[in-house]
Amino acid sequence: MSGSAGVIVPPVGYVPESKVTTPIILKYSTDTKFNPYTMSSQSQLAMMLELREHVSVENVG
Question: Residues 28, 39: contact at Cβ < 8 Å?
Fold first, then answer.
């Protein structure tokens, strides 16, 4: 994930890269470069649920 400011998780939205989110994203990713299209739906759901536990959600827009 080096060099990126965050990841886009379709169709959910943007998850900023931080010391909290990076380990969670890598835990469920199939590679060190995040690609949600290579993840199973179960991994995507588990990642989003874990992120929800650790990251505050803001309504942007």
Answer: yes
Stated pTM of the model: 0.67
3-state secondary structure the chain: CCCCCEEEECCCEEEECCCCHHHHHHHHCCCCCCCHHHCCHHHHHHHHHHHHHHCCCCCCC
Neighbouring-strand partners of residue 14: 8
Residue type, position 18, single letter: S
Rounded to the nearest 10 degrees, what angle do helices 21-28 and 41-54 cross at?
Answer: 160
To 5 degrees, how large is the angle CA 20–CA 24–CA 29? 145
pLDDT score of 8: 61
pLDDT value of residue 55: 80
